[in-house]
Specification:
The chain is of the alpha+beta class. The chain has eight helices and 14 strands. The chain has one domain: B-lactam Antibiotic, Isopenicillin N Synthase, Chain (Jelly Rolls, Sandwich), CATH 2.60.120.330. About 30% of the residues lie in helices and about 20% in strands. Strands 1-2-10-7-12-5-4-3 form an eight-stranded mixed beta sheet. The protein has a four-stranded antiparallel beta sheet with strand order 6-11-8-9, with no helix packed on it. Helix 2 packs across helix 6.
Length: about 325
């Protein structure tokens, strides 16, 4: 096992064919069972779409505070909307994170049955008054959702499941697209304060687009912090707690953090792919044995995500 983050080309998986799918699945499986992170190239997401997303993100975060607060996140907004600076504590034992964010979920109509029923974690998106913002973000959301489903065919293949095993568990996912802005590191940084405190992600897989500034750090299995610099036209991917639970800890959800850069602001755009609300997260076939029985009881996807989100926002009063 090495303390390096591999770069994996998804092209053979996307182009079809048993041999290509198996080869990519083997590489991904090795990363998931090891460091829990990998860079993904050959992903098929247009560079110009990614550029438009970052441009819109900067426009939003450069907007006046009153415009941003019109779409403010609260316990009633279904994990959607604007999270102000220091509004989140990914490591609740330390000072609030030095960043601001904006969350976008599956775009549901106001008359969707789950909206009318006030289903937890279901809500309409809160769109800011910025021309073109909604269209760009939804185009990107759909592209990342599709990429995430493609990745799950590799997970299924590597785990010895049917290729489409996860497909019916990702039809209306609790997936979140986040826009994040980290200001330059101030001289009066609070004790223990980071851009994003040490944490693991909650869902199945995270697909992260970063700018060139850097700041992401991954904790290796040996306990050292490893920088994960930007590699152009790749996504940084990591396993989340939900897929780790599904695989009975065969796949690793690795702690990571973000250190605010010195003298520069930083933007990043993660896409967190969580399963459908009613998907049952339980030990997958082949992931347990007499010597390694299931470690976790079955749980619904929405109940699991709520159990993760509540501690993150309770300290700052948003939940």
């Amino acid at each position: 096992m090495t303390d390096t983050i591999p770069v994996i080309d998804l092209t053979p998986l996307r182009e079809g064919g048993e041999a290509g799918r198996q080869a990519v699945a083997d590489q991904i499986g090795e990363a998931c069972r090891g460091i829990g992170f990998f860079y993904l190239k050959g992903h098929g997401v247009p560079a110009e779409l990614r550029e438009r997303v970052f441009d819109m993100a900067k426009r939003f975060f450069d907007s006046p505070e009153d415009l941003k607060m019109k779409s403010a996140y609260s316990k009633d907004t279904g994990n959607r909307g604007y999270v102000p600076m220091k509004g989140e504590s990914l490591d609740p034992t330390n000072a609030p994170d030095l960043k601001e964010g904006y969350n976008i979920g599956l775009d549901l109509a106001s008359d969707d049955p789950e909206i009318l029923a006030k289903t937890p974690l279901r809500a309409v998106n809160l769109w800011p008054d910025l021309p073109g913002f909604r269209d760009v973000m939804l185009e990107y959301y759909d592209a990342m959702w599709a990429l995430g489903r493609t990745l799950h065919t590799a997970f299924a293949t590597e785990l010895g499941l049917e290729t489409d095993f996860f497909e019916d568990k990702l039809r209306r996912p609790l997936a979140t697209l986040r826009l994040l802005h980290y200001p330059p590191r101030p001289a009066d940084l609070e004790e223990g304060q980071l851009g994003a405190g040490e944490h693991t992600d909650y869902g199945c897989v995270t697909l992260l687009a970063t700018d060139e500034v850097g700041g992401l750090e991954v904790r290796t299995r040996s306990g050292e912090w490893l920088a994960a610099p930007d590699i152009p036209d790749t996504f940084v991917c990591n396993i989340g707690d939900c897929l780790m639970r599904w695989t009975n800890d065969l796949y690793v959800s690795t702690p990571h953090r973000v250190v605010n850069p010195s003298g520069r602001e930083r933007f990043s755009v993660p896409f967190f792919l969580d399963p459908d609300p009613d998907a049952i997260v339980e030990c997958l076939p082949g992931c347990a044995s007499a010597d390694n029985p299931p470690k976790y009881p079955p749980i619904r996807g929405d109940d699991y995500l709520l159990s993760c989100l509540n501690p993150t926002y309770e300290k700052t009063g948003l939940m």
